[in-house]
Structure formats: structure tokens, C-alpha cells
Amino acid sequence: MAARADNAPEKAHAEDYLDRNAEAVALLSDSVFYFGELGMQEFETSELMASLLEEGGFKVERGIAGFPTGFCATFGSGGPVVAIHTEYDANPDNSQRSGALEPAAIVEGAPGHCEGHNCNAAVMVAAALAAKSAMAARGLKGTLKIFGAPAEEQLVSRPYFVRDGWFDDVDVALAPHIGSEFACGHGLVQSALISAVFTFHGETAHAGVAPWKGRDALDAVVLMDVGMAEHREHMLPFTQCQRVITNGGDQPNVIPKTAAIWWYFRASRAEGAMAVYERAKKIAEGAALMTNTTYTVDTQSAVWPVRGNQTLAELAQAEFSRVGAPRWSEDEHAFARGLQAKANVKATGLATEVAIAKGPATQKSAANDAGDVSWKVPMAKIYFPSNVPGIAYHHWAAGAALATSIAHKGAVAGAKVVANAALECFRDPGVVARAKETFARELAGEKWFSMLPADQKAPVELNRRTMEAFRPAMREHYLKERPRFQ
Fold first, then answer.
1. Partner of 42 for a Cys bridge, out of 37, 106, 465, 471, CB 3.0 to 4.6 A?
2. CA–CA separation, 295 vs 199, rounded Å?
3. Cβ pair 148, 156 in contact under 8 A
4. Distance between CA atoms of residues 451 and 270, nearest Å
5. How many other β-carbons are positioned within 10 Å of the β-carbon of residue 278?
6. What Cα–Cα distance (Å) separates residue 172 from each residue in 85, 130, 169, 458?
7. Domain that holds residue 288
């Protein structure tokens, strides 16, 4: 363990707790890895996390904001209120054996973790338990809230949490996320995004005998797709849209009366995402007119860009230096270099130093549903080193290290940073006050509002059929041992 940079007995307590429970951290991370559950279907994952927090002395409320696999765990009372929140869902068709240097599915075609949200789950729970233990032992006052956020890969849950008031009493928030090194930027970090399903409605007919009697919903989907493709030329810089056709009909000899296309609209700011979304609705209207169909739109999620608070980013940076980069073995470096070579990126091995942040972050085109939280309260998104540098997410290679000692060591280090940052907010009320002051300056008068329709409900059926199809085979690979924190 790195030499401690300050005389903080609460942090020493938390770090010792995590060193003592390193095996439990690893087992929790690996358990979630083998669950491999898609968004909104993380029943095994969320129950394990919530029950471990409950056993550790937290009061847990399950099913918050209409999300069956969401939860809020609370310890303590009064102020300040510090929230830790993260995601734990997997991706479709990304089952990958950990430790393999080539594509190797655990269950062919099944979902799997190919980014590392299993490590996020372990870091959040372990940091919460360590911080709670230190608070109780050292008599620190305040409230620690832990939010389990389903379906981040579909950018779903946290905009609902914020809209429904779950962050109204929170003073500052910390969001751990897997990376290949320690990092925490301030300023605009990620993009805004609106997720919407456009469903066209027509009329069936026999495609070979009387197609003129049909009104083809799939034609409308195709025309909307063409219209959006033409519109891309006229989009502002940093604006993007992506789609998948989720329903193209049933069989070629029946004109489809129903067809659907699922869009993501991205932009650097919330108003930019809304503008391209409004244009998409106009294009959908035109497609419907051309095909004599109608359409409906389901706005499943709408997220603000992730914003990092400078005060909390500086706090995280200090904790990175305190904890230090994990000490990797030569075997771990060799595995990383082998994976990098396989992925055709520079074979540098693992990060051995803590990088010093220089100025505001460069905004990424990727989005995260923590964005709404970061405009409601001061927030830091804290990246920890549990994956291999240079490896792109949502690809088999990003799953190869996720149940290895690389992921485990990085998760313990990440939990130490998150626990320490939370404890510093309880130890020093000035940290929270300064975070709020810088937050007010950073917003410059701009106020968060929910981009979700007021009556929008959580999409509870999302990914259900896929998980039902694959879960029986995946269950054969669940770990038998349950993590125990002491």
C-alpha cells in the first residue's frame, strides 16, 4: 500500500478495512461479472449489492423511482449528505471468458460485461462499507447515501431518480467508473443524449397478392432512416445520431403493420440533443405522410451531459496520490501487453503512475446517465484502474481482464479513493461548502430541468426477453461462494 499522504485516521481505517476485505471485493466483482445481466434485468446483481449493504448496517429501499433493480441505501443522519452512485449492467452479445487473449464466449451469443460495470458495483459497495465503518468507529456525523442505478448502457435510470426527487437533499455526489488509470476531470466530461423509440403503425396485406391494400410500417422506418441520414450533413459539430431497427415485421409475405426504430441523439449540450430530437420527429412525420402510416414515440431516457465539479475533482486527485497506483506483477503486465497486441494498440502494459490532471477535461462523445445528477449537485466522476489501457469498450477484449487480478487490484484502489473522498467531505465541512461555491460558478445561472416527459415511466420490460432466453445457460456459470465483508 502507498504511503499515506496525510494524518487522517478515518481514511487509514477505511483503507485497512478494504485491504482486509480485498477477497470480498474481488468476489463481489466476479459474481456480478458472471451474472452478466442486461439493463433493467439486473435482479441477481442488485439483490446481492443491496443485501450486502443491508448486512453492513445500511437501511435499504429497493425499487426506487419505479425501477425494480434500483435501490437507495442510507447510513447516518443529518448533514452533510454525500451520495455515491453507479451502474452495474452488462451488454448484449458480449459474453467473454476472463483471462482469454482471444474471443471466447462463456455462453455463445449471451450478454456479458465488456466495459467493467461489474467492477463499478464492487467499488461502490466496498467504498460504502469502508466509509460507514470509519464513520461509526471515528464518530463522523452526516448521511451517506448509496444509489444503485440500473440500465446505464441504455442511459435510463438516474434522470428518473433526479426528476423524482431522490437527489433533492444530497450535498455532493461521487460516481465511480472503471478505467485503465485514475482520472477525474472537471468541466463538461461527457455528452447529452436522448433515447427514443419511434414506432410506425400501418395495415397488413398479402405482399404477393394485394400489396396495394397494405400500409407498410417498415417503409416508414426505412424512410425515416434515409431522412436522418440526409440530415446528418446539416447537423452542428459534435452532434450525432445512431439507431437500430428493433421491429421490421414478421415475414416477407405479410406487409408489416408495425415497425420500430430506436434512436440515440447526442450533442454537447442538453438543448442540442433536444434540437436534433425535434428534427427527428419532423422527419418521422414526413415518413408517416409518405407511407400513409402514423407514428408514436417513446422517449425512454433523456440525459444531460456529465459535468465534473472542480473542487471535487481536486479532492479526488489528492486521494489518487494518497492511495497510489496498484503495484502490478510482471504476469499482469504481460497479460496486458498480450491483450494490447491482440487489439492492435500500443503494448505499454498497465499504468504505473498517477497522472496529474491539467485543466478542464476534454468532452467525450460518449454519454452517461449520471449527467442529470451532475447538474443537480456538485459531482465527481472517478475513474479507477481495473482494465487495460488502450482497449475499447463494448468489444470482447474489454471483457478479458474483468475477473482477473488486474480488475481486483484496481477495484480495491478505486474503493479506497471513493471512501476517502466521502470521508473527507464528512471530516471537513469546508470541502462541501467550496464544492457548492464552485458549482454555482460553473453553472453560471443555468438550471437543471428534466428532459423526460412528465408522465414517462421506467421501461421495466427492457431486455427482459433476452435475459429470459440466456439466463438458464448463464446460471450454470454463477459463482457458488458469496462475498463476506468483515
1. 37
2. 5
3. no
4. 8
5. 11
6. 11, 18, 9, 25
7. 192-303
Are 280 and 420 within one domain? no
Give the DSSP letter string of 199-237: EEE-B--BTTT-GGG-B-HHHHHHHHHHHHHHHGGGSPT
**Domain total of the chain:** 2
Q: Are residues 329 and 358 in the same domain?
A: yes
Place of cell 466522476: 381
pLDDT tens digit string along 228-282? 999 999 999 999 999 999 999 999 999 999 999 999 999 999 999 999 999 999 9
Look up the CATH number of the domain holding residue 211. Answer: 3.30.70.360
pLDDT in tens, 380-418: 999 999 999 999 999 999 999 999 999 999 999 999 999
How many CA atoms, within 13 angstroms, populate the side-chain half-sphere of residue 323? 34
Q: What is the pLDDT of residues 197-226, one digit of tens each?
A: 999 999 999 999 999 999 999 999 999 999
Shared domain for 26 and 165, answered yes or no, is yes
126, 341 Cβ separation under 8 angstroms: no
Answer yes or no: is 482 within a domain.
Answer: no
Same domain, yes or no, for 203 and 155? no
- The residue type found at 136 is A
Pick the last residue of a domain from 303, 321, 339.
303
Task: Please report, in angstroms and rounded to a whole number, the separation of the first and last CA atoms in the chain.
Answer: 20
> Which residue in this structure is represented by grid cell 461489474?
118
User: Is 83 inside a domain boundary?
Assistant: yes
Look at the block and give the residue holding cell 510482471: 330
Residues pairing with 384 in the sheet: 178
In a domain, 486, yes or no: no
Provide the whole-model pTM. Answer: 0.94
Q: Measured over all CA atoms, what is the biggest interatomic distance in the chain, rounded to whole angstroms?
A: 83
Long-range contacts from 478-484, C-beta under 8 angstroms, 24+ separation: 478/31, 478/34, 478/35, 478/44, 479/27, 479/30, 479/31, 479/34, 481/27, 482/27, 482/31, 482/48, 483/23, 483/24, 483/25, 483/27, 483/28, 483/31, 483/48, 483/52, 484/24
Q: What is the mean pLDDT of residues 96-125?
A: 97
Match 471468458 to its residue by C-alpha cell. Answer: 97
> Residue 2: which pLDDT band, with cuts at 50, 70 and 90?
very low
Q: Which three three-digit cell numbers place residue 372?
A: 442529470
Identify which of 301, 102, 293 has the alpha carbon closest to the alpha carbon of residue 200: 293
The answer to whether 277 and 196 have CB atoms below 8 angstroms apart is yes
